[in-house]
Amino acid sequence: MSDVILKTEGLTKYYGGLHALDNANFELRSGEHVAIMGDNGAGKSTFVRQITGVEQRTRGKIIFNGQEVHFKGPLEAREAGIETVFQNLALADDLDVPSNLFLGREKIWLNLGPFSILDFKGMKAATEAALKRTAVKIPNLANTIRNMSGGQRQCVAIARTATFASKLIIMDEPTAALGVQETAQVENIIRTLKSNGEPVILISHNMRQVFDLVDRIVVFRRGRIVANLKKSQTTGEEVVAYITGAKTAPEFSDAA
Ligand SMILES: Nc1ncnc2c1ncn2[C@@H]1O[C@H](COP(=O)(O)OP(=O)(O)OP(=O)(O)O)[C@@H](O)[C@H]1O
Ligand SMILES: [Mg+2]
User: Fold this and answer.
1) Is the shortest distance between the CB of 36 and ligand 1 below 6 Å?
2) pLDDT tens for residues 221-232?
3) Ligand 1 centre distance from Cα of residue 36 (Å)
4) In angstroms, rounded to a whole number, what is the distance separating the alpha carbons of residues 82 and 62?
5) What is residue 77's predicted lDDT score, i.e. its pLDDT?
6) Which of 115, 161, 166, 183 has the fewest CB atoms lying closer than 10 Å?
7) Ligand nearest the Cα atom of residue 44
8) In this structure, are strands 200-203 and 168-172 parallel, antiparallel, or unpaired?
9) 171 and 87 in contact (C-beta within 8 Å)?
10) Which domains does the chain have, with CATH numbers?
11) Ligand 1 close to Cβ of residue 45 (< 6 A)
């Protein structure tokens, strides 16, 4: 049995003539935490959108848990076990916190098919427990997402990710909008995921955070993967050199 959780082969996305993602070969092993770094517009979020079915790829293969997958949308990816915190947050503005946490997997109180009655009490209790576990503080769970600060929204999205057992967690700049304390909390959540053996892809511009949290760093530049570095064998300066293009790894220099 292979312990590769996610593998992409030649994953490519063109937006018209723009090669946002070009021939990405990527691998994540079970329990591994990998950071994706790269300048603005390097193709990091595009990569996530192809994996999670938010968009349909131009070409390439995605193998998840040993099977080739073609998710038609983010809910399908979720059902398969991929939890994602999207950079532009996929939260429902007009719903409160419990409804967002359970979006797409609502607890049913009475099952009448399309007219089922949801178990709001159960979802609220589970939400309180989840937020407690993740140390995320939301003053009023009944608030709709629309009335929350950017940081609070981000916290709800992260709590959702950490709540449900999943095979893979992807976080696209989860702390970009957060204050110092909230950032530390999110980093603790990521550490907990590591000790639980849950694999994570973390997209971050924060070098300190990346070196604190992950095992491996993959650098994107202009739609291509340009470096794949074990944290223990690289430095912040080297990573920056790959991000800016000052350095090129021989194994990635070929346009193949
Ligand atoms: N829907 C779209 N249509 C056209 N071009 C797009 C679309 N989405 C992204 N792009 C372009 O694709 C490129 C890669 O964008 P992407 O969002 O993947 O960058 P990123 O690495 O996530 O950057 P950042 O660090 O700023 O989040 C950019 O040049 C962007 O303008
Ligand atoms: Mg992005």
Assistant:
1) no
2) 999 999 999 999
3) 14
4) 13
5) 93
6) 115
7) 1
8) parallel
9) no
10) 4-253 (3.40.50.300)
11) yes
What is the pLDDT at residue 116?
A: 64
30-47 residue pLDDT tens: 999 999 999 999 999 999
Tokens standing for residue 18 = 């723009």
Q: Is 48 in the pocket of ligand 1 (CB under 6 A)?
A: no
Q: Is 56 in the pocket of ligand 1 (CB under 6 A)?
A: no
Q: What angle do CA 171, 16, 202 make, to 5 degrees?
A: 10
- Ligand 2 centre distance from Cα of residue 20 (Å): 11
